[in-house]
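From the thread on structure requests for the teaching lab: each student submitted one protein with a one-line request. Submission from student K.M.:

"Model Small ribosomal subunit protein uS17 from Rhodoblastus acidophilus, tokens only."
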Amino acid sequence: MPKRILQGVVVSDKQEKTVVVKVERRFTHPLLKKTVRRTKHYHAHDEAGAYKVGDSVFIEETRPISKLKCWIVLPNENKA
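Reply posted by the TA:
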């Protein structure tokens, strides 16, 4: 099973080796037929601490690293 890769924006970098990434998804509401935006925050592992608030990043699903972290930030070279 392939690992999921999501794109989002860093909203917090206050923790050590962790960034909080806001991922937005759009879908059509089943009853209203209107495009709806939903956002979700993911805690992602950032070993080097290279990413700051406002950076656009790709995150990849991985094994659980801690209670909240099961995503890692992909390096800039691996952006698809």
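TA comment: Strands lie at 5-12, 18-28, 35-45, 56-61, 71-73. The chain has one domain: 5-78.
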